Amino acid sequence: MSSVEHVTPAVTEDAPWWRQAVVYQVYPRAFADSNGDGIGDLRGVTSRIEHLARLGVDAVWLSPFYPSPLEDGGYDVADYRDVDPRLGTLTDFDEMVGALHAHGIKVVVDIVPNHTSAAHPWFVEALAAGRGSAARERYIFREGSGVDGSQPPTDWESHFGGSAWERVADGQWYLHNFAVGQPDLNWHSEEVRADFIETIRFWSDRGADGFRVDVAHYLTKDLGEVLPSKAELEALPWDGTHPLADRDDVHEVYATWRAVFDEYDPPRTAVAEAWVDADRLPLYASAEGLGQAFNFDLLEADFDATQFRDVVTHNLDLAARSGSSSTWVLSNHDVVRHPTRYGLAVPGRTDDGRPLVKHGATWLLSGGTEPLDREGGARRARAATLFALALPGSMYLYQGEELGLHEVVEIPDDRREDPTFFRNPGVDVGRDGCRVPLPWTPDGPSLGFGSGPAGLPQPGWMADYAVSRLEEDPTSILHLYQDAIALRRRLLRGEELTWRATGRDDVVRFARHEGWEVVTTFGREGYDLDGAEVLLSSMPVPDGVLPGEATAWVRPS
Ligand code: GLC
Ligand code: CA
Questions:
Q1: Which of 63, 70, 178 to mutate to test the pocket of ligand 1 (most atoms within 8 A of CB)?
Q2: CATH of span 496-555
Q3: Ligand 1 close to Cβ of residue 329 (< 6 A)
Q4: What is the pLDDT of residues 185-227, one digit of tens each?
Q5: Is the CB of 75 under 6 A from ligand 1?
Q6: pLDDT tens for residues 432-451?
């Protein structure tokens, strides 16, 4: 019995590479350290290309590796057209790109256009030049409020907590939607616009195949003389006219970028990180704009049949409206790793009632003891991965998920680095727990990350997740990723998906093309595959019955 409820259009064989790619996110400081100083670097990436090639990814996206005071993990950029000396040189970058390309792996770099670092020469100049100067026009400076201007211009809050304004020595204030060290740029400035075009050309000329655009829904702002209060701001709709975010005029910027992307052969690609109303996402993903946009709905969903199915239906519709393909993300450098998310019993409290600390949409216990069902979380993560890798569109993987890594909750407070932690004491532990250096071997000073220490400390359990150990075990999650990506590459044709009825609320089934079907059991109960040939499964399938909390790729008999 089957029913056709939703069919997406097929796309021809010569579709551009990014439409259905597997993209692997490297967080450079935590990937591999080539010189033993405890900081992952570009030569480290080059030295581990075999791992990426065996995994079979189509592209690598590198989080920022630019010179930076690291007030926000490198998303505070001091020079957009260079490599942080701690991470290497432009020559190291060229060698890395050459080596990745030689393995058929594309390179995507991160571009951070909403704000610079406070250490950027422009901001240094703005501070020195003083009120009313052209240098201050590149940023968003205002006088303070109160009789003597000693209060911030408004009560707006930054995303990392605390005021969104910071006062400078001469008494003016500047806007920072993120960390204090990340002053927002003024996108009315022609100089700002021209400079980012130069940056895009710079990396495209050096072989970058695409760009990931950080907080793509900010950039342009419309701040009149009288600024609204936080409450007034919050009451305004995000419909393209909001003074701070998701403004229609941001797409004028991306149209100019698109013109540059299209000068290259093949055209450079881009993916927008845009946290906007779903209805407005197609504007970012359109062919006249950035071309693709992240969809974070799976990352925000529980391991739940209805939620997963709705997320897929909704996002395939959005993608069809934009003409782009969809994207799927289970983890990235900003959220709690998904095996941990899927292993947390009661949101907000541990089993014995102790409060958890919030991080984003997830709750974690700060400081060590685990409220976690590690095995259950791992099992659900395997199932979710096979589900997502079978969907039409691009899959974005985050380094370490192929090892099944859990969030590291046991980082001592005095070793934490994320501004979210420091600006929200006792409320949010921040994002360091997914940024701990990768374990490559079960021993050595930093588990093979490098010959020296590990930066953020690696807990002892990480040894069990070491690449070399997982490589030896054919049942490991690493082999599951390798096998799934290889099989996906063989099976992928068009972008169609057809839902199949299962007669069960807790079981989701869909067909791709040429008889490739995917079944996921979200509950504890097994599901009889009715003699279908099992191509790959997240758990063994005894007697043709897919166990609970598992996914199988099958070909019906
Ligand atoms: C994006 C990045 C995040 C960063 C923020 C500010 O959300 O993913 O890591 O903190 O932008 O640049
Ligand atoms: Ca290093």
A1: 178
A2: 2.60.40.1180
A3: no
A4: 999 999 999 999 999 999 999 999 999 999 999 999 999 888 9
A5: yes
A6: 999 999 999 999 999 999 99
The verdict on the CB of residue 76 being under 6 Å from ligand 1 is: no
Is the CATH number 3.20.20.80 carried by domain 17-114+190-484? Answer: yes
Phi first, then psi: what are they for 12, rounded to 5°?
-70, 165
263 is catalytic: yes
Q: What's the whole-model pTM score?
A: 0.94
CATH assignment of 121-175? Answer: 3.90.400.10
86: nearest Cα among 133, 42, 125, 27: 42
Residue extents of the structural domains in the chain: 17-114+190-484, 121-175, 496-555
- Ligand 1 pocket test target in 76, 211, 334 with most atoms within 8 Å of CB: 334
Dihedral, 439, 445, 450, 454 alpha carbons, nearest 10: 70
Q: Which of 214, 407, 428, 517 is catalytic?
A: 214
Neighbours of 14 (CB within 10 A): 5
**Nearest ligand, CA of residue 179?**
1
- Tens digits of residue pLDDT in 150-186: 999 999 999 988 999 999 999 999 999 999 999 999 9
Known catalytic residue at 214: yes
CA of 309 to the centre of ligand 2 (A): 43
Residue 245 corresponds to which tokens in the numbers above?
A: 């975010």
Q: 475: CA distance to ligand 1 center in Å? A: 35
